[in-house]
Structure formats: structure tokens, C-alpha cells
């Protein structure tokens, strides 16, 4: 299987939204509504691709972009790690340039696939944190964590 920007696959992952953001559960799923929530009438609709990052609904393109390296084929991963050299002739004795910049290590490590049970456990923890610890840095997953101010767990 290979990664393509316009061909998402349903699944569950732990992702990091930015370099210093904590990991959070994300999913892409097909959703089909069969009855109107307001009137209760039966509806005939085709399934819609939905995505979640944490407890928030998001555009599936945002989640799929975070999974670029995780869902790529081995050939695509090699190309992301060390892109091909440009076909242009180098100027003034310089080395040939690259077609694109290599993908940084943190972007390669930003996502990993998880099971449905792990995803459900992460959502359960996020619901608990929403009620009981709304300022916890793991709940504020879109904000980078400053390592100097992060609380260190006490193992007593």
C-alpha cells in the first residue's frame, strides 16, 4: 500500500500535531446516517468520510496529512528520507541540489497505528481529562509543550 493525498484509508492512529505537541488519538472513519436526528425520518444518504483528532471532529485531509510517513510504502519512505537529486545542471562547480528537502525525523515519527481498543481507551481518558483536568498538557494537544515547565510524574 502507498500513501496518496487524495486516497485516505479508515483507521486509528496516535498522532502529534506539531513537533512538541503531546500525542493524541486520531481516526478516519466512514459515517452513514440513516435517520434525521431532529425528525426521525428515514434518509437515503451515501456514507461520508469523517475524521477526529482527540475529541474534536476535523477534516479528513488534516488527519491524512499527519499520516504521510506512517502510511507510505517503503519506496515512498526512502524518497521522503533522501529525496532525488535535481536534474538541473549545477552552477559554478556546486553539487547538484535536491528536488525537495528531506523529511525531518520528528515528522517521520509523528504517527503510529493503534488498535480500536487503544483508541477507545485514549478517548475515554480525553473525556475524563475534559471534565477533571482541562489544563493538563496532554488534553491541550494542539499546543506545544515546553519541557522546562512540564510536570514530571512522581513515582512514589
Helix-strand string:
EEEEHHHEH
From the alpha-carbon coordinates, what is the Rg to the nearest angstrom? 20 Å
**Helix coverage percent:** 10-25%
Q: How many distinct helices?
A: 4
How many DSSP E strands? 5
- The oligomerization state is single chain
- Parts with pLDDT < 50 across at least 5 consecutive residues: none
Secondary structure category: alpha+beta
The residue-averaged pLDDT reads 82
Strand line-up in the sheet with most strands: 4-3-2-1-5
What does this structure look like?
By secondary structure, this protein is an alpha+beta fold. It has helices spanning 60-66, 74-81, 105-108, 116-132; strands spanning 11-15, 24-31, 48-53, 56-58, 111-113. A 5-stranded antiparallel β-sheet has the order 4-3-2-1-5. 23% of the residues lie in helices and 16% in strands. 14% of the residues are buried. The longest helix is centred in the C-terminal third of the chain and has 17 residues, at 116-132.
Amino acid at each position: 500500500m502507498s500513501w496518496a493525498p487524495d486516497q485516505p484509508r479508515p483507521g486509528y492512529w496516535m498522532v502529534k500535531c506539531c513537533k512538541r505537541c503531546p500525542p493524541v488519538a486520531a481516526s478516519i472513519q466512514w459515517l452513514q446516517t440513516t435517520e434525521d436526528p431532529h425528525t426521525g425520518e428515514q434518509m437515503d444518504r451515501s456514507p461520508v468520510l469523517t475524521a477526529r483528532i482527540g475529541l474534536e471532529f476535523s477534516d479528513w485531509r488534516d488527519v491524512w496529512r499527519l499520516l504521510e510517513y506512517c502510511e507510505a510504502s517503503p519506496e515512498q519512505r526512502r524518497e521522503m528520507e533522501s529525496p532525488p537529486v535535481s536534474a538541473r545542471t549545477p552552477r559554478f562547480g556546486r553539487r547538484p541540489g535536491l528536488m525537495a528537502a528531506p523529511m525531518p525525523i520528528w515528522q517521520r515519527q509523528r504517527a503510529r497505528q493503534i488498535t480500536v481498543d487503544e483508541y477507545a481507551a485514549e478517548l475515554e481518558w480525553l473525556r475524563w481529562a475534559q471534565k477533571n483536568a482541562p489544563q493538563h498538557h496532554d488534553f491541550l494537544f494542539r499546543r506545544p509543550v515546553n519541557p522546562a515547565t512540564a510536570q514530571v510524574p512522581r513515582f512514589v
